[in-house]
Amino acid sequence: MFAGYAFGNIYALDFTSAKRRQILLLLGGGLVLLFIVLRMVNHYGDPVPRKIYPDTTRTILSFLNTTKYPPSLMYLCMTIGPGILVLGLPENVRAAWTNVVSVYGRVPLFYFVFHFYLIHLLCMVFFFATGHTLSQASDPNSPFLFRPANFGYSLPVVYLVWFCVVMVLYRPCKRYSEYKLSHKKWWLSYV
């Protein structure tokens, strides 16, 4: 989010598209390169060093396995770097999908807060729908309510729920984006 505020300057009207693209590609590429170099050196940037296994797949996964909580330097480089590269590549692309994606991009905090509560509400619904009772909502092995150790779904189901949440939030995000455009209140620029 902080990077978003900083990047606002390069998206100002007086900034040329070519200069913005150059900055984004250099910065994103530099972060990806920094990740690769640090991971190859294997002594700095992540508390868990990579391992080399007999099979290539596990070695590649170990190379990419960085610490998310708290985010390590390598994790930040390998996630923010490609994200910045993606910002620099399709800047002048105009297609139907860009109109859809830009709706979410105009109201990121609104989307984040709304999806957070919606997902937690769905978690509660799925919890009770699978036969759990209110007495099982709290698990001493989990800091979260409605998330006992034996509760969960397969990855395809999780992706389906994620896709549905994103689609359900399209209309509220679009309406809020339209509201922001038609009302010029100072606080709307932050939400």
Task: Summarize the entry for a quick read.
By secondary structure, this protein is mainly α. Helices cover 61% and strands 0% of the residues. Helix 2 packs antiparallel against helix 4 and helix 5 crosses helix 8.
Question: Can you describe this structure?
Answer:
The protein has 191 residues and is mostly helical. It folds into two domains: 2-92, no CATH class; 97-190, no CATH class. Helices cover 61% and strands 0% of the residues. The chain has helices at 2-7, 17-41, 56-64, 73-88, 96-106, 108-129, 155-168, 170-182. Helix 2 runs antiparallel to helix 4 and helix 5 (96-106) crosses helix 8 (170-182). The longest helix is centred in the N-terminal third of the chain and has 25 residues, at 17-41. It is flat and about 60 Å long. It starts with a helix and ends in a 9-residue tail after the last helix.
How is this fold's topology laid out?
Blueprint: H1 2-7, H2 17-41, H3 56-64, H4 73-88, H5 96-106, H6 108-129, H7 155-168, H8 170-182
Whole-number tally of structural domains: 2
- The shape is flat
Round the Cα radius of gyration to an integer and report it.
Answer: 21 Å
Mean pLDDT: 87
Tell me how many strands there are: 0
Defining traits:
mainly alpha; 0% strand; 191 residues
